[in-house]
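Render this sequence as a predicted structure.
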Amino acid sequence: TPPIQQTPSIQQTPPIQTPQPPAEDPKNLGYVSPEFAEKLSQQQIDQINANVESLLLTQSCPRCDLRAVNLVNISLKNVVLTGADLSDANLSRSTFENPDLVNTNLTRTNLSEAVLVGARISNTDLRKANLNGTNLDGADLRFSDLRDADLTNANLRNANIDGASLDRASMGGTTMPDGRKNQ
């Protein structure tokens, strides 16, 4: 009897999957941080972006809605943001020379390594704000709410913190108004 010939088995390969492009984001985010965009309507996002454009053009936007804006490393001089809402904004490494931030909402705002020399920040909500390494030399922080804020390595030399709430604020390495270094 002739030997039995084995036929090679044919392995079926799965069809090639072509990668699909990511779905386009229907919102035009502009200056709004993507992680907060889902909480905002398109109309709110459009208004926030228009407010940022106005701020950059005029250096003034009192009582503006600037929630969740991403303005890292910007430089503004004598900017007026009195009563504005900058909650959840990212303003890290930015320079604000003599800004007016009185009665401003800066809750959870990232101001790490920012320069706010001579800032008027009295009666301002800075709860849970990131002020790590921020220069607040000569700032007026009277009656501001800094509860749970991160002021690690911040410079508060010559700052006025009378009546400010600093409960649970992280202040390791902070330079205090009198120039002494907090441990």
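Summary. Residues 28-178 form a domain with the Pectate Lyase C-like fold (CATH 2.160.20.80). Helices lie at 34-37, 42-58.
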